[in-house]
Here is the input.
Amino acid sequence: MTTLIDLRPEGSAPEPDDAPRPIRKSLSAADRVFRWGTTGIGAIVLVLIGAVGAFLGYQLFPTLRDYGLRFFTENQWNPQLNVLGISSVLIGTVEVAIIAIVISFPLALLTALYISEYAPPWLRGTMVSLVDLMAAIPSIIYAMWGLFLINPHALYLARWINEYLGWFPLFHVASGDPRAPVFNLGVYGSSPFIAGMVVSMMVIPLACAVMIGVFRQAPVSEREGAYALGSTRWGMVRTVVLPFGRGGIVGGTMLALGRALGETVAVLLILSPNFDIKLRPLEIGGITTASLIANFFGEATSGQLAALLAAGFVLFAITIAVNTVAAMIVARSRSGALTEI
Amino acid sequence: MTAFTNTEQPDLRSTGSPDPQPAGIGRASADSPDRPRAISATTSDYWLTLLGSAIGSLGLVWLLYERILPFSGTIGFYICWYVAYLAMFTVVTAIVHKPTIVVDRLWTALITGAAGFVGIALASTVGYTVVRGWAAVHHLNFFTESESAGSPLTSPLTVGGILNAIVGTLIELVIATAVSVPLGIGTAIFMVEVGGWFARVVRTVVEAMTALPDILAGLFIYTFLIIALGVQRSGFAAATALSVMMLPIIARTADVQLRAVPGGLREASLALGATQWRTVWRVVIPTQLSGLATAVILGMARAVGETAPVLITSGFSTYLAINPFVNPMNSLPLAIFTAVRSGQNLFIERGFGTGIVLLALVLILFATVRLLARSKVARR
Here is the structure.
């Protein structure tokens, strides 16, 4: 019963050997055009944007030739005397960015938790859209808001912090004696603190969107497990969602840091330029790399322009490093599988 | 009384509490052991505690802050109110509930408060711009006349407008989009469909360039195009700077979208004998068309609000400029920046009015993205 039965009709000629269809190794003409065309576009883009990076990096050479290694240690940027240095600029850039992160991190984290865990489901989609909208609002709008609405009010907050926490060096304001007979409001405005506050508004949605994405991926089975063990909602969040989303929290925050480092307009409008190295964020004055470029590109000689580009390149290198680390951390966190049918 | 008779439950309740002490000790008699704890936090007890604490803390803080202690300032008042509210809410909850529930409610209050704060900040940003700019924007001449029609510092709001800035922004946006869309989408197709070591190199560089601070794109074009090649400060220079910003954004977003096309679709098309070109053109792109449109519009929304590159490259002019190659060209962000820098009240009002127009433009682009995304969901 297990023998094969020949189903071919009796007497029909045996078929020729079952040779496989020849598979062409070479691509068709259309495909070759397609591949070469897209590769060409890729090459053009690589050359174009690679040229920007290479051009910026190349400017380090004339800059170091003209100004030497003092370029990194000098704190003044004085085009008239041709004394240029970026130490105060780099410190100011990092200072404003860190203030922005200190303010935005708790707000972004808690807002992401609210949207992903606490908001009623019918409101969730709208709120995610609002976060995206917040990211799309141009920075000049935030800058106006910060300059005209926040700056006049934040003065009092800065004075309050100085009055009660001024013994701590970071919160000290020189010549800002709160008990002076004439209240000197001027020293509290246009400070890195207020600039950082406004920048934090721009980076909250970036960090928040990344965090929401990771929190939503926390597995339902583990959530239900926590509830089944009698956990409260916060207990579930603390034991399931937060550990699961750790990569997204760190990565999103670093992404926000990268953006905060390069922010220009808000800082340019709010911070009044000052090249002293002083770690007193509540006090008026400071400078960041981006606002340095915007302030000085107009009157720069070619050597000074190269120095500005070199300063920009240092900023760019820092931003790339921060973003790369952020991308690695986000990618390493437990995330969704590949899309396949 | 109730049908539930689970008596062995309470020991597991403390999962969520940082307090090592098991919940309910000492208060176990407060609620009968055979009743399951309500998971929903929205009982009338919750809302009344919340409302009472809010009103109580408002009264307390007003008395202390405004009448007794030597404080002043609006922001400080609200901060003190919120802190007092949290304290009062915690204490009132702790009178009747176990520590687990107190911690849960405190965190709920904190998280909701933070989300509300961000919401208020967003609303105040948009609202403040609209309120301050309304005086300028509700005159029709704001849209039909250029800034050169009158002095922005002294003319009343019924003379002069921002037609030149609107036209300038649109021209720059069109040029930048026309340059960066074919290149960006083409690169994304190359990175996803062709692949290989070279595609990995391109992807690495594109991802790195998304980190380029906006001012550097402007400074690069300024040094390269304007100083070295002698191109005039113009709309074209600004559009080039915007393309340098947009190109990596579009390429990267489109890359992500194209990678989301299921591999099975590609294989099915290839198995039917289609060439790779036809597969991309007839299967991959139509599948993710709305995603690609999203990438383009995201890039446009980013470019339309960029101030720093435009500030460096486009020059400033109050006259209506149509030809992007010869004369300085104004744009919406630059007009706002100039107005704010002037420090003159009338000019600043015009700046806020310009802000409304810019916000509206971003909103339109944004709404288009949402509609595209929704149509994609609906089709599935």
